[in-house]
Design a protein that fits this description.
44% of the residues lie in helices and 17% in strands. The relative contact order is 0.12. The chain folds into three domains: 225 residues, Rossmann fold; 92 residues, Rossmann fold, CATH 3.40.50; 71 residues, ACT domain (Alpha-Beta Plaits). The protein is an alpha/beta fold. It starts with a helix and ends in a 7-residue tail after the last helix. Belongs to the serine/threonine dehydratase family. Pathway: Amino-acid degradation; L-threonine degradation via propanoate pathway; propanoate from L-threonine: step 1/4. InterPro entries: ACT_dom (IPR002912), ACT_ThrD-II-like (IPR044561), Ser/Thr_Dehydratase (IPR050147), Ser/Thr_deHydtase_PyrdxlP-BS (IPR000634), Thr_deHydtase_catblc (IPR005789), TrpB-like_PALP (IPR001926), TrpB-like_PALP_sf (IPR036052). Its cofactor is pyridoxal 5'-phosphate.
Length: 409
């Protein structure tokens, strides 16, 4: 059982967040806030990045997990805790439990990234791999809780967890007292709800904007319906905000205190992650980059100073490579073209020579000679090129046409 009926009815107040802040002293870092000249220029107002990607365990999740576990009764601590997660919550629960001397078990999907599995074990949790998706791991964790009496630690649907996440809001107001807009990624809603509780209580004039991935946006229909609505198949690369149903406790707070929940596309998430890496020198996971994606896509919608919360930096290197390539392609910095040429010695060298004139870097060449659609003396070449942006892509394609090649895509 994730929480009692009394917990379900209990909301979260500024006093709860302040109490959590005291409890987290010496445990969670007061993470840095860095200005972004590039985003400030794009938005037309100061933009600052709240770097929870630099928090212990690589995300904000430690805050809520620690407050929740610290609040357990002695007999509950003795029974241990259990959680289910693909990454950030797993690591937060593991470290919080170790710091508090509580035994922890974490169920993770079999396909969870190896770095996240290793980190969770190193923080002290027993990791059990179960199922292919987090929902299957969640069911296994809840069954384990019923069988053993271990306390299930929900990633977002508990007042103590929300109070812990709300300490980010207190830090924002301390570090940027003149803030006008806070932008934060939304999955189940625990972080957005906690920040909204703290910020709205002290500065009701500050606008709070939540951001969801377009393919996993459960909050807009839920807010329209006035109750949590489940998505059947949420799809996004941003696994940190890939949640099919808002939590009951955070939903009520988000509905009351968050001014807007908007969505961003996968292309926008990719571009945002790339920008954080290139311009801010920060490694951020796709969910953590969602506020930056919103600023890039709707710069006119945010009154400054703006604080964008980079909620986490635990990105699998394999995913990072794919996302960076996708982000570069979305910015016109990759170009894939197919063309035909005469199958004779030197033909490929001539093609590459034409590309060198326009300073296009060839990343990959595919050469096909045996295909029924090709003539007897023809070959088809597919090129992957590194370019400098949309204008350069157009220049490269025109240069190929001017050299007599038929560009097919």
């Amino acid at each position: 059982m994730s929480y009692s009926t009394a917990d379900r009815l209990r909301s979260v107040t500024l006093d709860d967040v302040r109490g959590a802040h005291k409890m987290l002293s010496g445990v969670a870092r007061a993470t840095a806030m860095e200005g972004s000249r590039h985003l400030s220029s794009h938005v037309g107002a100061p933009v600052l990045l709240k770097c929870e990607n630099l928090q212990r365990t690589g995300s904000f999740k430690l805050r809520g997990a620690y407050v929740r576990i610290a609040g357990l009764l002695p007999e509950e601590r003795a029974a241990g805790v259990v959680a289910a997660s693909a990454g950030n919550h797993a690591q937060g629960v593991a470290l919080a439990s170790s710091l508090l001397g509580v035994r922890s078990t974490v169920f993770m999907p079999k396909g969870a990234p190896l770095p996240k599995i290793s980190a969770t074990r190193e923080y002290g949790a027993e990791v059990r791999l179960h199922g292919q998706v987090v929902d299957e791991s969640l069911a296994a964790a809840q069954e384990y809780a019923r069988e053993t009496g271990a306390v299930f630690i929900h990633p977002f649907d508990h007042p103590d967890v929300i109070a812990g996440q709300g300490t980010v809001g207190l830090e924002i107001l301390e570090q940027c007292p003149e803030v006008r807009t806070v932008v934060v990624g939304v999955g189940g809603g625990g972080l957005a709800a906690g920040i909204a509780v703290a910020v709205k209580a002290l500065r009701p004039d500050v606008r709070i904007v939540g951001v969801q991935a377009e393919g996993a946006a459960a909050y807009p229909p839920s807010l329209a319906a006035g109750r949590p609505v489940s998505l059947s198949h949420p799809v996004t690369m941003a696994d940190g905000i890939k949640v099919g149903r808002p939590g009951d406790v955070p939903f009520a707070l988000v509905g009351e205190l968050v001014d807007e929940v908007c969505t961003v596309t996968e292309d926008e998430l990719s571009a945002a992650l790339l920008l954080c890496l290139e311009r801010a020198k920060l490694v951020v996971e796709p969910a953590g980059a969602s506020p930056v994606a919103a600023l890039l896509s709707r710069p006119e919608a945010f009154e400054g100073p703006v604080v964008a919360v980079l909620s986490g930096g635990n990105v699998d290197p394999v995913l990072m490579e794919r996302v960076l390539r996708h982000g570069m392609a979305a910015q016109g910095r990759y170009l894939a073209v197919r063309l035909r040429l005469t199958d004779r010695p030197g033909a490929l060298a001539s093609l590459l020579g034409a590309l060198s004139v326009v300073d296009a870097n060839v990343l990959d060449v595919g050469h096909v000679r045996t295909n029924p659609r090709l003539g007897l003396t023809e070959a088809e070449v597919e090129l992957h090129l590194e370019t400098k942006g949309p204008a350069h892509c157009a220049e490269v394609q025109q240069a190929l046409r001017d050299a007599g090649y038929t560009v097919m895509g």
